[in-house]
Amino acid sequence: MKGEAVRHPGINLGDDHGEAHSAAETLVFGFWVFLMSDLIVFGLMFATYVTMLTPNSFAGGPEPKDVFNLGSAFAQTILLLLSSLAMGFAGLALRYKHSVVRMNIWLLISLFLGIGFLALEINDFRDMIEMGAVPSRSGFLSAFFGLVPLHGLHVTAGCIWIVIMLIQLRVFGPNTVVKTRLLRLGLFWHFLDIVWIGIFSIVFLGGLA
Amino acid sequence: MDQDHRFEQALRQYIIGFVLALALTGVPFALVAWGKLPGSVTLLFVLLCGLTQMVVQFRYFLHIDFTQQKREDLLLILFSTLLLAIMAGGTIWIMTNLAHRMH
């Protein structure tokens, strides 16, 4: 990719994509503005969570060590990382004009890994709620249920977005609009994995260390 | 031909990023599961690995680096990071300080 003009952060379509490559510049920049404001939202949820880790905030209720499951957090991390990689491969298939079938396969793999991540996460939330660790129990749990499901909600939105792109690829084929949307979907998906690094480091590993 | 070569190069970037990310995930999880180090040492190590992995993913998955970015894009990302550091760092500093005083 060296030597070619880079028009925006993230994978670039390149000059051989003509109109789509130039159209991507402003669209992707705008999407980065959204991603960075989303980053601020997540960052402040993190800050709130960290301030809720004092003994007072546990309010005599469950503490991180009582409610977190290291094995499940690890499995979720690996699923999301693999999903992010699959999305990267879908982006490469788009960039290097491989067959639409190949791109569909990577998108589907990414989607299923994302759904697997959500299934494990929801299962964990259910276990927590069953043991009485509900959001209203303590400040710590309120902050936890503000932060981690917010990320899960983003992943859910991303999964829906992948399904929509699969449909659009089928209906419209890889035209300019669909290509630039796929670029932004890729950025969103990688971004969510980066936020997850913060979650597993601070919330799960920080809580169990 | 040239295109194939470029594809392989780009593919290699993703693979490198993935292997690094995997290592930077596995090691902190293993340390916490092992649990023999003092909590604060483990925590410091976990946070360092996490930060490194964020940089790795920005570099290899999002293709952000300091050499070939357009200026305003890099400024956007760096400025957001600065804002976040001030707001999150300030919140944590002030609130933990208050929590200590409440004891």
UniProtKB/TrEMBL annotation, chain B:
Ranges annotated as spanning the membrane: 14-35, 41-62, 74-95
Quaternary structure and partners: Heterooctamer of two A chains, two B chains, two C chains and two D chains.
Gene: cyoD
Topology versus the membrane: Multi-pass membrane protein
InterPro entries linked: Cyt_c_oxidase_su4_prok, Cyt_o_ubiqinol_oxidase_su4, Cytochrome_c_oxidase_bac_sub4
Compartments where found: Cell membrane
The UniProt record lists the keyword Membrane: yes
Function, in words: Cytochrome bo(3) ubiquinol terminal oxidase is the component of the aerobic respiratory chain of E.coli that predominates when cells are grown at high aeration. Has proton pump activity across the membrane in addition to electron transfer, pumping 2 protons/electron.
Organism encoding this protein: Candidatus Marimicrobium litorale
Name of the molecule in the record: Cytochrome bo(3) ubiquinol oxidase subunit 4
Family, per entry: Belongs to the cytochrome c oxidase bacterial subunit 4 family.
Signal peptide, first to last residue: none
Coiled-coil residue spans: none
Keywords annotated in UniProt: Cell membrane, Electron transport, Membrane, Oxidoreductase, Transmembrane, Transmembrane helix, Transport
Keyword Transport: yes
